[in-house]
User: Which sequence fits this backbone?
């Protein structure tokens, strides 16, 4: 590498000295020739070979070469070179396709203008210091540093943290204080990216007011703790980003309910309608508990039942066919002993499609998704009628093996051929931490915090304007 740099400098120096003796006689053609040359040692080398050489040099030395002349700067600025550097040199845990999606679709979200310079993106991403990410969740909260490969800890959600009879401000203050204490981070040092649980689903004035009150309470607490910038995004939207999509339908199987959320260009289409089913992870755990009791399988706590559900249960492709199979499987729960399940393994997840067998009066998951797709199609929000044909699953219970395949199969049988054509159901891209990874995409953007975050002065100004109004 040092030899290459020396060769470039010698080449440029020789070219400069040959023209410096007669500066007044320098013609326009000679200037053009000089500006379009890489030097006698490099002009004959094909462009692809030069780019391969620059890949070996590395980003720091490539930047130095770009300072030699306009021609070298143009060569060094080639997007193919910096895409390679982003893939192999920059120390991040995100797969390249995730980085590319984020920079292409989210850096100036929701508008995307101008041509991307991956050389500039590389430099900007190197300067992003990172942020605290808190995925509020509905069953439990995941938190961690944006530069980490995964969340570093879990806790109760802020909606259930502490004494639920305490004022919301006090509970939120206690919650965020505990998270920062466990992460050993001062609130004033880094921005925060926060996922807001899917709640107050309707498009009514009261639901809008409730969502606004929750968001304002979160901002107030965080800014009172001197957090420099806050990015609060809907949990379903983050799950969609984690699947490298900005439009689609997110099926979030939460702790108590399952929500079917249509999202277009990163915005929840509440006017189209968010479908809600009164089935969640808690109900599935409770149903497995009932089945185990009916079959005289003894256990001491719900922890055992939940562990068995997460490790042994699955969703059958065909429920009736599965009933005739031998599906016994065993596992050892630490400190609890060995447990063997049979039909309970697939009967537990079946209540998502046949709620009545679990004593729940509600529509099945496939029916709710089909209804949402019908509403999206009828709304004619864009000329593209395929945006709602990508369904992304989210939540810990959505990780049950076979769920995505069964839902896709049921939808093909339920929907008309025109709506079912091109349909795709995507399992949780990052398991139960999917929304956390969606937040990670945002916090590692080259333009973060940019337009994604609101700062204390902006929030105070907005609050005063609302009061005056």
Assistant:
């Amino acid at each position: 590498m040092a030899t290459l740099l020396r060769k470039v400098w010698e080449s440029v120096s020789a070219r400069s000295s040959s023209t410096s003796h007669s500066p007044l006689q320098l013609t326009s053609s000679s200037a053009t020739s000089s500006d379009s040359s890489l030097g006698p040692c490099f002009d004959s080398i094909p462009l692809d070979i030069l780019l391969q050489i620059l890949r070996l040099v590395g980003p720091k030395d490539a930047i130095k070469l770009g300072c030699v002349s306009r021609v070298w700067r143009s060569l060094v600025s080639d997007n193919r070179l910096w895409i390679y550097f982003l893939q192999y040199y920059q120390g991040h845990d995100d797969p390249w396709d995730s980085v590319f999606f984020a920079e292409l679709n989210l850096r100036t979200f929701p508008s995307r203008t101008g041509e991307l310079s991956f050389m500039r993106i590389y430099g900007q991403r190197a300067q992003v210091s990172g942020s605290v990410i808190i995925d509020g969740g509905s069953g439990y909260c995941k938190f961690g540093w944006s530069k980490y490969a995964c969340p570093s800890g879990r806790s109760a959600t802020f909606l259930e943290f502490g004494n639920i009879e305490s004022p919301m401000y006090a509970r939120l203050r206690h919650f965020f204080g505990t998270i920062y204490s466990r992460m050993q981070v001062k609130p004033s040092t880094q921005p925060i990216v926060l996922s807001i649980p899917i709640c107050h689903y309707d498009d009514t004035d009261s639901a809008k007011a409730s969502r606004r009150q929750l968001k304002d309470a979160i901002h107030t607490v965080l800014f009172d703790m001197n957090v420099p910038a806050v990015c609060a995004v809907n949990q379903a939207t983050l799950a969609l980003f984690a699947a490298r999509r900005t439009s689609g339908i997110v099926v979030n199987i939460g702790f108590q309910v399952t929500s079917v959320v249509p999202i277009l260009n990163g915005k929840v289409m509440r006017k189209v309608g968010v479908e809600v089913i009164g089935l969640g992870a808690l109900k599935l755990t409770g149903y497995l508990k009932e089945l185990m009791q009916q079959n005289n399988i003894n256990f001491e706590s719900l922890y055992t039942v939940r562990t068995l559900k997460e490790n042994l249960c699955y969703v059958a492709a065909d429920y009736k066919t599965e009933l005739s199979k031998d599906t016994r499987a065993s596992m050892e729960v630490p400190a609890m002993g060995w447990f063997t399940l049979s039909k309970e393994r697939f009967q537990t997840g079946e209540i998502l499609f046949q709620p009545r067998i679990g004593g729940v009066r509600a529509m099945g998951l496939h029916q709710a998704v089909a209804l949402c797709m019908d509403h999206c199609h009828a709304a004619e929000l864009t000329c593209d009628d395929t945006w709602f044909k990508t369904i992304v699953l989210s939540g810990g219970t959505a990780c049950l093996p076979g769920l995505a395949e069964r839902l896709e199969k049921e939808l093909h049988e339920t929907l008309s051929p025109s709506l079912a054509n091109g349909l795709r159901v995507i399992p949780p891209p990052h398991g139960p931490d999917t929304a956390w990874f969606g937040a990670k995409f945002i916090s590692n953007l080259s333009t973060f915090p940019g337009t994604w975050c609101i700062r204390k002065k902006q929030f105070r100004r907005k609050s005063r304007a609302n009061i005056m109004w």
